[in-house]
Amino acid sequence: MSVMEHGVVRPVTAVAWTSNTGTCPKDFTLISITEDGAAANFTRSFAMKSGYYLCYSKNLTAGMVVSDIQLISDKDSIPHGYCFIAEHLEAKASVWKKKRVCMRVVPVGSVDTAVLDIKVTAKSKMMLQHYTYVGDVHGYVLWCRKGHFSSPMPKAKPRSVSLDIRRLSLDQPSALLPLRPSNPPCPLPQSKMSQRRHSLNIKNNSDKPADSSTQGITALDGVPFSLHPKFDVQANGMALQLNSQLNNIRIKSFQDIENEYNYNFVVEESAAKRTRPSVPTEAETAQ
What we know:
The protein is of the alpha+beta class and 287 residues long. 17% of the residues lie in helices and 23% in strands. It starts with a strand and ends with a helix.
């Protein structure tokens, strides 16, 4: 089976033993015939009904790839970072323990090269070009091909949009609503607020739509947050200077702001109460 599919080299993501096509998972490819035309049935004797076939998968859903395959004896300890391949066999069947096939599985983004293909030949002098010899397994020779592979392209996750946003169209322009924060500040006590400010707050509350489907969408949605390099302590090593600047910042209370910016309109009220001078008419001048 060719490792090239539409110009994209896909790596092997899993290797397993299986007894037949029925026990082989749907996303695995079963190696039923060797490269020299023999049946790739790993059996101990001709009296056995169930066989052993190698199968491999190239499904990248789990985000893992096989970077190496080794064949070890049952007396050898498994190498660090390796694991025995899975067994998708019948309930009464089991793989012999004299030699075990183990593989190293790593995340797809951690390596540039991986196992691209697996082939089996009968125990003969046949050599496969561009393939690496793994070892002899019960009368068969296991080969693997390693190389660079094509990483899957990331797929953008669809963002859920409310019904009101989907109704917006460029063909039917509508009046833009003012942007409002998704979490408005807590109401302040009215005893210390001017009448003008209190009337503005009432007007803003009355403009809010009854439908709350767009309240969670603000102008900052999708904008990434990043700290200005001026305040990046790890980048420029100015921790002492930054701490001194932060200590000089004074946080004003509501009473301080009222005392500093409150205006009672006394001059305007006294000017409005003044009586305007009357202009004498012609009859009054004649008298």
